[in-house]
Structure formats: C-alpha cells, structure tokens
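Re-run with default settings, no changes from the original entry. Doing this only to confirm the output is reproducible before filing.
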Amino acid sequence: MKGTVMNDRRAALINGLLDLAAFLEAHPDVPVSSSVTIHHFPDSDSDAEMCEEIDKIAARVGSEIDYEDSPYGHYATSVLFGPVEYRAVAVLAAARARHDAERSYLGCVKPDLNLDLDLD
C-alpha cells in the first residue's frame, strides 16, 4: 500500500509539473519566478536514518552533500536543472528542537504599534 501511495504522489507531482510547464508556455503574459526548488524531506525522526537517505539520494543523482546548510542543522543535497532545483533535506534533531523553542514564544511578544516616530 505504501508503495502505491508513493507512486501515486510521484505521478501526481510529475503531471502537475508538466501541466505547469505547458500552462506557462501557453501563457507568456503570466509572470514567473526566476527559479524554483522542489524539496524532499525524509520521513523519519532518526538523524542517522535521515542522513542515510540523503546520502543515497546524493549517490543516485550524482551530487555532493551541501555542508553550507550544516550550521543550521540541515543535511542536504541537490541537483540543478537550469533554474530548477531538486533538493533533499534532512532537518536534524538539534534544528527541530531550536525551531520548537523559538516557536514556543509565538504570540508572547507583541510590538507596540502606537509609536510616535519623529523622523526629522
């Protein structure tokens, strides 16, 4: 069952991308971004399992691990097709914990919107 669902999601994504390309080609008056990135995030809580999946993807697509994301707790690889990027990213436990801690303050700090600003 899981394989069927994954194949259905994959087919739907590919068909959506093809439909988008055809639409944009047929409507040159519609503005577009200069680039697009498709992200894949491994479905696991284990850092080791996620990194292993990213390593396997890197080997399949012939890319290296992107260590520029390492300071943020991400383990990633990508491949470019002109301005289109396929990027596989493992968000490691430390980064998820930092994000959760930062989000725990959501709504607790409210800016004072009644400021009298003297801009002279």
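Helices lie at 2-26, 47-61, 93-103. Strands lie at 36-40, 65-66, 74-81, 84-91.
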